[in-house]
Amino acid sequence: MTNINKFVRNFCIIAHIDHGKSTLADRLIESTNTISSKKLENQVLDDMDLERERGITIKSHPIQMDYTHSDNNKYILNLIDTPGHVDFTYEVSRSMAACEGALLIVDASQGVEAQTVSNLYLALEADLTIIPILNKIDMPNSDVEAVSEQIIELIGCHKSEILTVSAKEGTGIDTVFDTIVNVIPAPTKKHENGHSRGLIFDSFYDQFRGVVAYIRVFGGSFTKNDIIELISNKVNFEITEVGKLKLEKVSTNNLSSGDVGYIVTSLKDVSDINVGDTISLKKEKEVEPLPGYKEVKPMVFSGMYPVDSNDYEDFKTSLLKLKLNDAALTFEPNVSTALGFGFRCGFLGPLHMEIVQERLEREFNMNLISTAPNVSYKVITRSKDEVIVKNPADMPDSGNIESIMEPYIKAEIITPDTYIGNIMKLCISKRGVFQSTTYLSQNKVQLNFILPLGEVIYDFFEKLKSSTKGYASLDYEFIDDSISKLVKLDIKINGDIVDALSMIVHKDYDYQSGSKICKQLKEEIPRQQFEIPIQATIGAKIIARETVKALRKNVTAKCYGGDISRKRKLLEKQKKGKKRMKVVGNVELPQSAFLAILKSGDE
Ligand code: GDP
Ligand code: MG
């Protein structure tokens, strides 16, 4: 295959979470003086506040470096740092479509873990050249020999091909550069077909410039003022700027085949652009799309509703803008009797859900109430119709249901063998079925379980971490829907069903679930002037009940002069404006009440 530009290398960095991807990226950026040392902070590519606070990478981050090799040639290295958590695998797979190679990092003190394996498979599927790198060799408990064996077992490479580095201390970085240049192929014409084509692998909304798309060019070139066609929807727009992705964006004359960079689009409607779409020049007719990505399948759903119903339109625009930057997010309008107009949103997993909610609040200033997560159910009705239920409130009447299916996952847990007992206990308490154990090395095992996804989305990760001192890692994939004995549990507050609190529970645990949620709701709902009964019901049957007692009258007795109390009332009113409360019937429910089910999981 002929190379287009033998001085370009496009590669991503992949690994299990915390194995040192972003830190290695720091060293590469530093060695190439891509960022002045003054501006270089740790994990510099993690530029979202959320990423810095949590110390995790959520987005893929592309950056271009100029590198002078020992052969005196100047190379352009386009690096993409990727997230390691299973919920963000879609980010990783899209980054790969822009690359020819991948640096597979393994922490020498931890060894191969769940996300090491699944990211490696993604990279192989994407036909990338893999460079295995053992990181953190400075750690006293690093075991280069044993972990090298694991890597050889995994990818079948030769020991001499495994690089050993300390990203923190900067050891071995020169060899990483050498290997990138010598082993990763320059971009080839593999995907060229005589047309100018670019694959959109990410995008975002810029308040001042509009929609910006990150592209990898496969054939031809793109220049400022070109008229573009989006292949999926035939929408046209003019490019107002093209450029490369340094830490800041730097405009250039054009982007040509093999290049990774950005275009500013002048698109007015943010919903026109879709990550995964192909751009071409409008004047070129009948251009085939580039192979895009797998469709994402949301696995976890939650309802989100603006606290102030006047914010609905704003909320909708915010979701559309956020979707530009988070292609895995899905949403559709939904009306809840209790919470009003909002959206039912789909996520790849519970962490993804949490991040989306936080980003909506921080980046778009939204004040939202969200409901507890649930999975989607397949319901076969008595009349043999199949109904997909993504919202427990929409579950058909039990009299009309023949069977309910729920999604199951295959979970791979990698752990030191001392924790096998704890993990067994946890998985069985979550209706898990043990499948098999494989020893990866002397005391490291992989356990396989089949589990209902619905049991994993609340607190499974935290429990897994706490019962293994943080040593176990989890990866899972969806396998199938199968029939379970499930029932819909409704919650009545002050006599009225609150649709946003309905949930689907297993029949064998319905009383247990009902009483737990009532107890938790009692904790969450503030006392008011009257008594508030909380009831859990299945159909017409009440299975649990709690009561929030009324406030005692004398609590509100005035102790100060009228002036002060009026002032205080005013203050309280202002405070309430910011608080996340919804009045349902005549009861004030705080956001925490809608998430009570998440807290009532403890045995
Ligand atoms: P990522 O999740 O793969 O991007 O990992 P990070 O780059 O965020 O690193 C996770 C943690 O490991 C951070 O606390 C780093 O400082 C630390 N770390 C990364 N590389 C090394 C290394 O070579 N040696 C040591 N001792 N710590 C490292
Ligand atoms: Mg990172």
Describe this structure in words.
The chain is 25% helix and 34% strand. With 603 residues, the chain is α+β, with helices and mostly antiparallel strands. The strands form 7 sheets. It has an 8-stranded antiparallel β-sheet, with helices on one face. The radius of gyration is 27 Å and the shape is globular. It starts with 7 loop residues before the first strand and ends with a helix. Mean pLDDT is 90; it is low at 555-561. Bound molecules: guanosine-5'-diphosphate (GDP) and magnesium ion.
| Average predicted local confidence, pLDDT | 90
Dominant shape? globular
Q: Going across the major beta sheet, what is the strand order? A: 11-10-16-7-8-15-12-13
Query: Based on DSSP secondary structure assignment, what is the total number of beta strands?
Result: 33
Poorly predicted regions:
555-561
Brief descriptors of the model:
single chain, 603 residues, alpha+beta, eight-stranded antiparallel sheet, 15 helices, 25% helix, binds guanosine-5'-diphosphate
Write the layout of secondary structure elements.
Blueprint: E1 8-15, H1 21-31, H2 49-54, E2 61-68, E3 74-81, H3 89-96, E4 101-107, H4 114-125, E5 129-135, H5 144-155, E6 163-164, H6 173-183, E7 197-206, E8 210-217, E9 221-223, E10 227-230, E11 236-238, E12 241-245, E13 249-252, E14 254-256, E15 260-264, E16 278-281, E17 300-306, H7 312-325, E18 330-336, E19 340-347, H8 350-364, E20 368-370, E21 377-381, E22 386-389, E23 401-416, H9 420-429, E24 433-441, E25 444-452, H10 453-456, H11 460-466, E26 473-484, E27 486-493, E28 496-497, E29 503-506, H12 510-524, E30 532-538, E31 541-548, H13 562-578, E32 581-584, E33 587-590, H14 591-594, H15 596-599
Parallel strand pairs: 1-3, 1-4, 4-5, 5-6
Antiparallel strand pairs: 2-3, 7-8, 7-16, 8-15, 9-14, 10-11, 10-16, 12-13, 12-15, 17-19, 17-20, 18-19, 21-22, 21-23, 23-25, 23-26, 24-25, 27-28, 27-29, 27-30, 30-31, 32-33
Helix pairs in contact: 7-8
